[in-house]
Amino acid sequence: MWITPEEVLLANALWVSERANPFFILQRRKGHGRGGGFTGLLVGTLDVVLDSSARVAPYRILHQTGDSQVFWNIACGSSRKEITEHWEWLEANLLQTLSIFDNEEDITTFVKGKIQGIIAEENKNKQTLEDEDSGKFREAELKMRKLFGMPDEEKLVNYYSCSYFKGRVPRQGWVYLSVNHLCFYSFLLGKEVTLVVQWTDVTQLEKDAAVLFPESIRVSTRDTEHYFSMFLNINETFKLMEQLANIAMRQLLDNESFSVDRSLPKPCKTLKNVSTLKRDLDARAKNERYRAMFRLTQDERLDGHTDCTLWTPFAKMHVVGQMFVSNNYICFASREEDLCQLIIPLREVSIVEKADSSSVLPSPLSISTKNKMTFLFANLRDRDFLVQRISDFLQRTPDRVWSDSKEVLVSGSLESPSPTTPFLTPPSPSEAFSGRYYSPGLPTATQGLDPPRQSWNIHFFEFGRGVCMYRTSKTRELVLNGIPESLRGELWLLFSGAQNEMDTHPGYYSELVEQAMGRCTLATEEIERDLHRSMPEHRAFQNEMGIAALRRVLTAYAFRNPNIGYCQAMNIVTSVLLLYCTEEQAFWLLVALCERMLPDYYNTRVVGALVDQAVFEELTRECLPLLYERMQELGVISTISLSWFLTLFLSVMPFDSAVLLVDCFFYEGIKVIFQVSLAVLHANMEQLLSCSDEGEAMTILGRYLDNVVNKQTVSAPIPHLHALLTSGDEPPPEIDIFELIKASYEKFGSLRSDVIEQMRFKQRLKVIQSLEDTAKRSVVRAIMTDSAFSLEELEELYVLFKAKHIMSCYWGASTTAAERHDPSLAYLEQYRIDRGQFSQLFTALAPWGCGAHTPTLAARLFRLLDQNKDGLINFKEFVTGLSGMYHGDMTEKLKLLYKLHLPPGRLRLGMVFFFLPEEKVKDYKYYLRMWAKEKEPKKETIKDLPKMNQEQFIELCKTLYNMFSEDPLEQELYHSIATVASLLLRIGEVGKKFSNNGALEEAQLEVTTTEEEAKDDTSVSSYSMVSAGSLQCEDIADDTVLIGCGDQRPGSVLDVDWAITFEQVLASMLTEPPLVDYFEKKLDIRAKMAACRFQRAVERQVSSSSEHEFSQLSG
């Protein structure tokens, strides 16, 4: 690559000159290429260990003039081919021009200007992403692609110096972290170690501290473990590895490719050796933490944060914390947890004002909202810049009128109506029936209990009400004591963040309902099946009005998010939401649950719930070790916890009690569910330890949860179906839900949300990889009955096929990954590859190698397997094609080859039509038998295959010649196929005579076949004696046009009446023993698959660094 001219004082230090002319020198780095001796080994080792630019470029071109002692480095290259192209360009374009100059300074100035012009021209065509990366980082990216054979689409994120433990011997080198791979390279005194691990293969990622591996990172795959240590910044490296592994898991889960965030703010200064992708990932991590902390939507992006203080009028003090500014919100979090948290939507802001600074209140900033609340921030480091950023975001907020004042930012009048939708009091049943929403009257505790409502009214007076309310430890205390039912919907919306999303999307739910109603999908069928199972014990869902509301909410969400659609347990949660909210509010609460608070819980494989189940097991092991061992023996934890998490205890606990846990969940998040689950196990520890089997443990926990009661409610308890089934003779003691919640905070309140997220990541790797293994086993079991491959062979083929599919997610293809993946289909039909990827697998695995003709044969087989003509084939179709080549008998293999050379239109699947006689009326059993017979696939016979014309026959012969080119019996096979080809040419000529008699075509075909078969029986020996010269080899070897192009081969005249059948081809082939032996030979795919595994480069070690081996390694 051309580089900006750099001054070089010592041109020959550690470099060897290979070419020279009066103005330029081409040099090779010592230690690279052939020879070099001990000095070369030492230099090569230094280049790998030290962070020098020379280790990236083994070749360079210097500019020199006769009298000057200064050299200028103008180009570098990672291969001899690349540097030679630059050298030849210089000789062709600059040498003659430079000889005209008289002044050497002018020559140098001209060369430097020319090179800089070339670089500027190249950069015009490059993306902004590449322009932002430093030159040194781009060189490292080129080195990575060269060393590990990566395409240009593979982007390097960062690289670090470290040691890789191969056995007990550390190898110092560099680890390259790209979007899709972890790569390591080391070269020490002639020993070269190369490692490539796909992130999608990683099953565990941990930081370890052991005697042999001090402060190391362990990367585990299904097959092995890799240890990396001696990092300068191990925490940064580990966090980046976690992010990249998490992205890979999302690819496996959702088939979503990694896309660069091009809206990142420009860095104020160029960061040395930090790529744009690294900044992108750092920004994503900060955004995720910010959104999780304040329950904001997925499109919210953090612009920046700064230390400050906030005046809290309820405590009469300044609270130290941080202010966060994003495109739609200003948020504050105190340094001390739970002391104070604040969310100010910019749509609510009316005034932003810089107050006068003082020694008591330095750099204050006042923010006023439309509901006449004022927030005073102080101790802001760069107040002017902060005000300008807030001003920029406010200008993008709709419906704002700006004054010319620079100090005060004023929207319209303070009395203007707020865009925030006010909380609606649940209407009466008669009003609900006439409206769009549903909220029936409830037998609630609000009929006789005023103290909880009075406490909340006092809280609203002191801390504010609505989205800008101060959230403090007092707020948590009130939530834990239970939210009044008249306020439950309002506060659920507020604490979950659903209120903000609903306010910014007015009318969205109504539009979804109109679009979704009347549609029939798999999700709507499942919804209809579960509607009447949603809290059937509650009177609100014992009538059509409640059922219709539930149907609309679930159907609207399935239409909004087809990746989730509908999952069992969503109906139970949604029915509870509808008891306290309008339909629109329940919809946005469901959005918050499925997409933010319970991520991946309700997808097709309930991955999120399985991950939290694994986290719960790990917490049980840490907090209740004795009980954990016993529960593992019984296998109870995995059985009970899934329903607890999926329905938030609503399906296993009396309604009045479970809804209080939902209150806590909306405020605290998933943390409270873990706490209560641990508290339930702890309360039943003695009984569980004495259990003899799983059923007994389930009964103990089921009865305990059935008797968790809410003693503050005045209404009659709603009977719980589970309680009716598990109740015994003696009623067990009642457990107060408030006491259970209090115990969970006292015993397990030290759980932190960030620790849970870390545990979730660790378990997510295991769960998703376990699901992938389950999918593989399911596919293999489904195919084994139809395939002759062994279990191990099918599993390995699935791994190779899946790797090609995953590759389409990040290395580009003709179709997007989403189009290739349909999670509603069976596992074996979910993942698909296109023609290019199939061609690569065919070349690597197929037994019929045809040299340069292989891609053509692969394209024909792909066309044959792609029955629905969508340009993609699934794993079952892929195995079907391979199975025919490896395990079919001679007839099946020849039939496959024959089909591959017929045009697509001639290979339609035959259909069976049954004509029923009219004179007799049949009963229903007869029609059922006819229908079943129609559904049975018709087995294809050799008589069903269409005839082959002369051009197609020549293509077939060419394929056979190419197939035999690398066989040990090459000459015998050539002679046999020439004999058979001559025979078939004569058979076609004889058949043509019959076709010219004017009879019907079908009759002619029968006569031709009969005559030719008789001829084969009586005079085969005469045809077999025809010499190979009867069929011109030039016709076979010359390139021919693919079938379907419509062009004939140059210099040839095809006989349009000439044709042969498959029966004639088979009969002719059977006359030649070499051909029979070739096609009847047993083939083994295991050697091909082993070569593929080696090609994937899991780990390679090369004993020398010669240029020949270096090029092999790069390829």
TrEMBL record:
GO CC annotation, single: membrane
The record, for Gene3D superfamilies, names: EF-hand (1.10.238.10), Pleckstrin-homology domain (PH domain)/Phosphotyrosine-binding domain (PTB) (2.30.29.30), putative rabgap domain of human tbc1 domain family member 14 like domains (1.10.8.270), Ypt/Rab-GAP domain of gyp1p, domain 1 (1.10.10.750), Ypt/Rab-GAP domain of gyp1p, domain 3 (1.10.472.80)
What does the UniProt keyword field contain? Calcium, GTPase activation, Membrane, Metal-binding, Phosphoprotein, Repeat, Transmembrane, Transmembrane helix
Q: Report whether Ligase shows up as a keyword of the record.
A: no
Report domain Rab-GAP TBC positions. Answer: 482-669
Q: Which domain of life is it from?
A: Eukaryota
Looking up PROSITE patterns in the UniProt record yields:
EF_HAND_1 (PS00018), EF_HAND_2 (PS50222), TBC_RABGAP (PS50086)
Q: Phosphoprotein among the record's keywords?
A: yes
Q: What's one GO BP annotation on this UniProt entry?
A: system process
SUPFAM superfamilies, A to Z: EF-hand (SSF47473), Ypt/Rab-GAP domain of gyp1p (SSF47923)
> Mind telling me which Pfam families this protein's record contains?
GRAM, RabGAP-TBC
Question: Where would I find the EF-hand domain in this sequence?
Answer: 853-888
* Location relative to the cell: Membrane
Which InterPro entries has this protein been placed in?
EF-hand-dom_pair, EF_Hand_1_Ca_BS, EF_hand_dom, GRAM, PH-like_dom_sf, Rab-GAP-TBC_dom, Rab-GAP_TBC_sf, TCB1D9/TCB1D9B_PH-GRAM1
Q: What does this protein do?
A: May act as a GTPase-activating protein for Rab family protein(s).
Q: What is this protein called?
A: TBC1 domain family member 9B
Task: Identify the gene encoding this protein.
Answer: TBC1D9B
